[in-house]
Amino acid sequence: MDADKKQRRKIRALKKKSDKHILEYILKISEDVHNITDIDILLDKLLYEVRKFTNAEGGTIFLADEGSLKIRYTQNDTLFKDASMKYKYLGQEIPVSNDSIAGCAAKTGKLSVFKDVYHRGKSCKCGFNRQFDLSANYRTKSVLAVPLKTVRNKVIGVIQLVNAKDEKDAIISFSGKDQLFVSYFGNDAAVAIEKATATREMIMRMLRMVEFRDPKETGGHVNRMGAYAVEIYDRWAVKRGFPQELIRRFKDKYRIAAMLHDAGKVGVSDKILKKPGKLDDDEYKIMKMHTVLGYRLFANTNSEIDAMAAEVALHHHERWDGNGYPGKQDDLFGISVVEPCRGKEEIEIPVTGRIVAVADVYDALISKRIYKDSWPEEKVLEFIKENAGKHFDPEVVEAFFDIYDVIKAIREKFVEEPSTMEAPPKQAEN
Ligand code: C2E
Ligand code: SIN
Ligand code: SIN
Ligand code: SIN
Ligand code: FE
Ligand code: FE
């Protein structure tokens, strides 16, 4: 809270200075932004920075997707006291047209600002849809909508901020400095957004090749795993008092690493992978190799993300009580099946693996798999509780239950459908 107050004071002082000071400040935070790899973490950071500067109550980032705008990230202090809400509006679509303020900004490529959107004046051609306010019992008043343009002047999305507030929390207009900040910072970030989107698409394409289940499932399962992992980690790390910036950097790598946890299944034959029934002992031994194979895919590179992906792949089936696999193998590059071996236990298992273990079993049990039916929710939760201290790290289980509303919101958002970032995957031919 105090740090928050201090920051706000700093921003207020900055806004009294010349434009040059503001642009210098943008350059300073720009470096951080360009070092972010994951698109969700990037959008979170972007919205955080523009809301900090403008002191806006809420904000939404829309990204252009096949001729329309899709809500890709949204925050609102008043509406979303509960963290699960940010997932609710995800993926909602609006046309690039004059029917809405964001649509209008995307269409014209021009910034627009309103003191009160309910009184827009005759010259304004943009519509405003009150449906959202009505359904959420909210009053949108001041609005700033800024198109996100890349260097080639292509509009890739829109940042829309609502209800700027003064020191006493009264709603005011977005100032000229606000407009300057959001357009410069937004355009700088647009380049990073394009890059992070391309990275995510590449990862999704790669995972589709693994395609060990119905290809339609890939997006759902993988996106859920990434989101569960960062949210559980966030809770776990906040409880331990880790600094925010460290948490953000960690999550940036961790979402991607968690999405890749099963990439080693690419080396397991379809006969085993897609077997409708129970695996026999030999098949299960081979299946267990997906941990080691995943590790081999990502080990021995210099990238921090690859290093974390290798760590997650290797450890996500270890158990807190030491009965997991692959355990303490002498030569990870030498083995071809996982024979029983002393497992790693407790904090010998990296926290990245301990968290993905909970998320993975939760997702496996609550979903239908080719080899099993879905379990009822209460049975799944009971199973997870019972396994705190056995299969799972009790602290991680605690974090999981602390944010269970968020976990559920993620599950509802990423049902078995392709990633919100891309068109549906093509059916692969065998
Ligand atoms: P997965 O489907 O993602 O399952 C991940 C983990 O969830 C499993 O790791 C296990 O710890 C837990 N889990 C899944 N289903 C059940 C269940 O019915 N009961 C209980 N108690 N736990 C469950 P595990 O066992 O090491 O399996 C790793 C992967 O091996 C699985 O990933 C799946 O792809 C494959 N697999 C495991 N058992 C079978 C099977 O009987 N048939 C087939 N076709 N594949 C299997
Ligand atoms: C996200 O990972 O979806 C955003 C980061 C966060 O607020 O947890
Ligand atoms: C899939 O879910 O189809 C593959 C993604 C993964 O390896 O976890
Ligand atoms: C950490 O605090 O990041 C590592 C310690 C642990 O794995 O619990
Ligand atoms: Fe696995
Ligand atoms: Fe899995």
Produce the secondary structure layout:
Blueprint: H1 2-16, H2 19-34, H3 39-54, E1 56-65, E2 68-76, E3 93-95, H4 101-108, E4 112-114, H5 131-136, E5 143-149, E6 155-165, E7 171-172, H6 176-210, H7 215-239, H8 244-259, H9 270-273, H10 281-298, H11 304-315, H12 351-366, H13 377-386, H14 394-402, H15 404-413
Antiparallel strand pairs: 1-2, 1-6, 2-3, 4-5, 5-6, 6-7
Helix pairs in contact: 2-6, 3-6, 7-8, 7-12, 7-14, 7-15, 8-11, 10-11, 11-12, 12-13
Bound molecules: ligand C2E, succinic acid (3 copies) and fe (iii) ion (2 copies).
Residues 347, 351 line the site of one succinic acid (SIN).
Quick summary of this structure?
The chain is of the alpha+beta class and 430 residues long. The protein has helices at 2-16, 19-34, 39-54, 101-108, 131-136, 176-210, 215-239, 244-259, 270-273, 281-298, 304-315, 351-366, 377-386, 394-402, 404-413, and strands at residues 56-65, 68-76, 93-95, 112-114, 143-149, 155-165, 171-172.
